[in-house]
Amino acid sequence: xxxxxxxxxxxxxxxxxxxxxxxxxxxxxxxxxxxxxxxxxxxxxxxxxxxxxxxxxxxxxxxxxxxxxxxxxxxxxxxxxxxxxxxxxxxxxxxxxxxxxxxxxxxxxxxxxxxxxxxxxxxxxxxxxxxxxxxxxxxxxxxxxxxxxxxxxxxxxxxxxxxxxxxxxxxxxxxxxxxxxxxxxxxxxxxxxx
Length: 194
Fold this sequence. Notes:
disordered N terminus
């Protein structure tokens, strides 16, 4: 019964939130400028010419915790050429603060910025629904992948397909992304209630 209620509650959240748009694969990514946990500004435009990975995150989410304990994000990023690929975490959690992001980043030991989107403006522009929810944007600023980090929602598979790695590798070698969209999994993004 609890699972049915949760599914209904989540369904209501998505149905009742028509303000959510979607960053569409094959179309220009929504422009944004956000400050990270240190107050430094990052805009999508400043990374033109590089592949940009956007990771919607919330350190309180069990799915995010699992991926950070397994070093999924850091290991994926490590496999890329830092001169060609930028990784940006985005936290659209309504009650998030730069201090919380900085403490989490220090505890987990990763180096990429955590962009602060507590009002949820950028998350809603992208249609980010879960944490994690991943987007890969090509060198011209076009969305080429949107969906899950991998094909293992429950974290039980010995062999996983890392969709983000597959997408970035394809872009860096001039090939089409094999699976341009997948269904994201995780906790719902805790947007500010309107």
